[in-house]
Design a protein that fits this description.
The chain is α+β, with helices and mostly antiparallel strands. It is built from 9 helices and 25 strands. The strands form 5 sheets. Strands 1, 3, 4, 6, 7, 8, 9, 10, 11, 12 and 13 form an 11-stranded mixed beta sheet that branches. A 5-stranded antiparallel beta sheet has the order 14-15-21-20-17, with no helix packed on it.
């Protein structure tokens, strides 16, 4: 009899526990929801039961039904920016989420330069971090970090929590993303939520679904869990473990900082990144949402035994910017670190990403966000004439109207340092060593401290040739 009573009690406990709605960690106290839209919610409840969702900002109740597995999904209308609010979800037993803000939500992803926290890495600081952490004091900037998780197959669960932007939370949060969010908060004066899903040493391939990688046969998709040999470099594993659980969380757009791990495989990067953007947009079902990314900063990759010139990867990123709609690239030619793959000037990365968002997404007037880029070259005797797109404010150098980072080559394909001078929106280049130039390169090396600007923004390294080396 005692055994039967124990079993009945245990069964009742299980039944009672299953009655309460459960939610992914991303839906929790303190979260930020995208303003003035239909925002998605999902979770689990008793199987085949009615789930009611009540939003405090309008006291409206939404009704949905869980499927045979207990999974349910709904969307709720969100108001203009504000809060705090609450949401109550019930399948007979109530779960309430409190301290919810309505504002702007951005996904922040990539590899270590996106992951790099405000406190820096060991022996690798972030500029001005002590002061920025000290002065972090913003309850309307909310931060969520998805814990690193490599998985063989897509999962729905994740680990993380929403935190307000005070020193303890900011210290451990992405420096690039924090500076991006801080700029948005100041310019827009609405709550901002940042969801960080980034992992160091990760390749573009690991943030893509297997289906999207079929066009890239060199990306070896794992056939079994035993094939997941490198947690950050095996294709699909971070998409499965870190991105899949948040896909569908209603947001404004994405910021991305990645590419260092793909330097040695640069040739397919523009196409691969374009496929990734297309795939994310297809799965998020929010149309061509904004996608803004950092071009990798200059760094001497020979230190880590790379034999490929990383300028080829930067070139691929420049191409990718123009291959997808509603994209923008933050150029960091003036923010590199010759002897460190993790540059310290994260405020520049975050600010330039914010400029793109404030200009192209939010329509803030009077700011410049897109770097000028190489348009065409004309050769006249011993001199090359370079023209640029997006250069309405013309071109200038950090050392006056000249640049020290140009090279030219003749038919022998041997490059020589060249003199470069600027006249309004054009750059003229020549070298006494090349009588008849056929190719020009600017800052086309692993490391160069960019010295060519337009309207306050650096110009990417570029070349006029298509030679393999």
């Amino acid at each position: 009899m005692k055994k039967l009573t124990f079993l009945l009690t245990a069964l009742l406990a299980v039944t009672t526990a299953s009655a309460k709605v459960t939610l992914p960690k991303i839906f929790a106290d303190g979260m930020v929801m995208q303003r003035e839209t239909s925002a998605n919610l999902w979770g689990s409840a008793k199987s085949s039961t009615t789930v009611k969702i009540t939003t405090s900002w309008d006291n409206k109740t939404y009704v949905t039904k869980s499927d045979n597995d207990g999974k349910w999904k709904a969307s709720v209308k969100t108001p203009e920016a504000g809060g705090p609010y609450s949401i109550t979800i019930s399948d007979g037993e109530k779960t309430t989420l409190n301290n919810i803000l309505i504002g702007e939500v951005w996904i922040c992803s990539g590899q270590s330069n996106m992951e790099m926290p405000m406190k820096g890495f060991k022996n690798q600081p972030v500029d001005n971090a002590v002061e920025d952490i000290l002065h972090a004091n913003d309850s309307k900037l909310r931060l969520f970090t998805v814990k690193r998780n490599s998985q063989f197959a897509p999962i729905d669960t994740l680990t993380g929590s929403w935190k307000e932007a005070y020193p303890a939370a900011v210290r451990d949060f992405s420096a690039t993303a924090y500076h991006f969010g801080r700029e948005l908060r100041q310019a827009l004066d609405v709550p901002v939520g940042l969801i960080l899903a980034a992992s160091g040493a990760s390749a573009c391939e690991v943030c893509m679904a297997a289906e999207w990688l079929k066009a890239f046969p060199d990306a070896k998709i794992p056939a079994s869990p035993e094939d997941v040999k490198s947690k950050n470099r095996t294709p699909t594993v971070l998409y499965n473990g870190m991105l899949h659980p948040i896909i569908g969380y209603t947001m404004r757009g994405v910021i991305w900082y990645q590419g260092e791990d793909n330097v040695t495989r640069y040739a397919t990067y523009a196409d691969m990144m374009t496929a990734m953007i297309r795939g994310w947009r297809s799965e998020w079902k929010q149309g061509d949402f904004p996608f803004y990314f950092c071009q990798i900063a200059p760094y001497d990759y020979k230190i880590i035994n790379y034999t490929i010139n990383s300028a080829f990867l930067r070139e691929q990123q420049s191409k990718a910017e123009l291959m997808s709609p509603n994209c923008g690239m933050a150029v960091l030619m003036d923010a590199g670190l010759e002897f460190g793959i993790h540059p310290r000037k994260k405020h520049l990365a975050g600010m330039r990403l914010a400029l793109l968002a404030l200009d192209k997404t939010y329509g803030v007037k009077g700011i410049s966000s897109e770097s000028a880029y190489f348009k065409d070259v004309t050769f006249k005797n011993d001199t090359a004439e370079i023209t640029f797109n997006r250069a309405k404010m013309w071109i200038y150098g950090t050392n006056g109207y000249k640049s020290d980072l140009f090279e030219v080559a003749g038919e022998d394909r041997v490059f020589h340092p060249a003199k470069a001078w600027i006249e309004r929106s054009k750059v003229f280049v020549k070298s006494d060593s090349v009588a008849h130039p056929v190719a020009v390169r600017y800052a086309f090396k692993d490391f160069a401290d960019g010295d060519l600007f337009s309207d306050g923004l650096p110009i990417s390294s570029f070349r006029t040739d298509n030679w393999e080396e």
